[in-house]
Amino acid sequence: MEKFLGLPPDAAAHGGEIDFLIGLVHWLMFALFAGWGIYFVFALIRFRSSKNTTASYHGVKGHYSTYVEVAVIVVEAVLLVAFSIPIWAKRVDAFPAEEKSTVVRIVAEQFAWNVHYPGPDGIFGRTALELVGTDNPLGLDRSDPAAKDDIATINQFNVPVGKPVVIHLSSKDVIHSLNLPAFRVKQDAVPGLNIPVWFTPTKTTQAIREEMTTTFDVSGAVAGETTLRLPAVETVRLEKGVAHDGMILTSDVEDREESTVMYAGDELSADNVELMIESGIGEVHARLKTNFDRYISLADYSDGEGNSIIAKHESFGPDAVTELLRAGITEVAARRRSTLDPWMVMETLNGSDGSPIVTKGDYLSEEQITAVAAMGGKTILVAPFTPTEIACAQLCGLGHYRMRGYMDVLTADEFRTWMDEQVSMVRAMYGGPAGSEPGQLSTGDGPEEQEN
Ligand SMILES: [Cu+2]
Description:
Elements: H1 15-46, H2 64-92, E1 102-109, E2 112-117, E3 151-154, E4 156-160, E5 165-171, E6 176-180, E7 185-189, E8 195-199, H3 205-211, E9 214-217, H4 218-223, E10 226-229, E11 234-237, E12 244-249, E13 253-254, E14 260-262, E15 267-268, H5 270-278, E16 283-288, E17 295-297, E18 301-302, E19 308-310, H6 318-326, E20 331-336, E21 343-345, E22 349-350, E23 356-358, H7 366-374, E24 379-384, E25 389-392, E26 404-410, H8 412-430, E27 441-443
Parallel strand pairs: 1-5, 3-27, 4-26
Antiparallel strand pairs: 1-2, 2-3, 5-8, 6-7, 6-25, 9-24, 10-20, 11-16, 12-15, 12-16, 13-14, 17-20, 18-19, 21-24, 22-23, 25-26
This protein binds copper (II) ion (CU).
């Protein structure tokens, strides 16, 4: 059942229990669904109107429905008492000793995850509200001796494998939710509360990638090469009350005083048309708002003066399309963008001269896909770049979708090396006499945000 549900890879010591329970709940739901479905069909046939011209006012006389209800309640009670409550109790009561764990504070904010490590002394430095600023999102007081070796990162959460992780979770603004799918952790972060959560990572992020390795179809990606015909620029006569749905302006529109009324890219909605007519504008240049976001260019295109509009392998944004049209370009060589999800290359492929075209650990780029296809390659082994990311599981604001942290489970050695680097960096800044400079920050080093 767990396989069938398509759960994310399980990389936590307690993950099996959670998955088992999820499986049980789904079996119960499946039984109820099937039972109700069968009864529904039975009722449709048994009580069809042609055989039952008058309604029965007596209803059910047998006791079967009561037995079934009792049975469902018993099954649910067993699920709750025998499985859910013991598993939950372990999560919230049986915390590991902090000396034997990786202890961090995670402070959520719109729209980032601030991670605070206590450093080698194991003591979290003092934080103060007055010190919170863009350079010091945790409000860490570096004049406190315990704070001098504290590490603060933004959207980068590194932990060693095989050792319990204890997170003290809080929030600076609204309710967020720390979601670590691969570690079966989901906990709301509530302003004013400090909520502890814990888990033990059993696999490194790289081991999860190895597990999730799959083949990327290079020849399929390249087979989608095509010529895109850009929508023609039309001259549109504006008439009061007439909207041109699906059309956008291709140049800024100015009134007689040369102040801009509308910008290129604005839509020809009824309101906008009316506004332009009121400003004395009779005609505009516009085009269909065809969207080529999902395509990448297969050539460099520039305008008459040689300024680049779009480079090979870049995505087409709406501005690029308008600029191409302005430069008189109506057709472009393109293919569908094939790397909507960030992939990590899992095998090194060498070209004919022996130098690598793609290297294990690379972020798979469109350039590399083209290069591998050019040397006759059909597939590349790839794995998800961020199989262990942190997602916010609360709709916490308009930038919610940006609230992603990169979590990396490292080997003990890799973690020590990373921690040593961070500590020496912080010591270099704060090791001397007490200073009041803001905290040293490292930000997430995951793949760059994809434009959509
Ligand atoms: Cu959030």
